[in-house]
């Protein structure tokens, strides 16, 4: 039986809101790569808004 993966913000390992760290955990890649992508998006336009939307839409991980 497979387990369904869920996207959460990882504030424990994140820098600001844990968006990039959570996306990195979900896709099993280094969060630094996701941060670089968001940085390019910030300079090209839209990265800031994408980050803010993710901040409000992606739920925070409940720490056990």
Please, could you describe this protein's structure?
The protein has helices at 19-27, 31-44, 47-57. The chain is mainly α. The protein is globular.
SS field, number of helical segments: 3
* Terminal-residue CA separation: 24 Å
The largest pleated sheet is described as:
none
- The string of secondary-structure elements, in order, is HHH
Total strands: the figure is 0
- Percent range for helical residues? 40-55%
Mean pLDDT over all positions: 84
* Shape estimate: globular
Radius of gyration: 12 Å
Structural class: mainly alpha
**Strand percent estimate:** under 5%
Uncertain ranges:
none
Top keywords for this entry?
mainly alpha
In short:
This protein is mainly alpha-helical. The protein has helices at 19-27, 31-44, 47-57.
SSE layout:
Elements lengths: L18 H9 L3 H14 L2 H11 L7
Helix pairs in contact: 1-2, 2-3
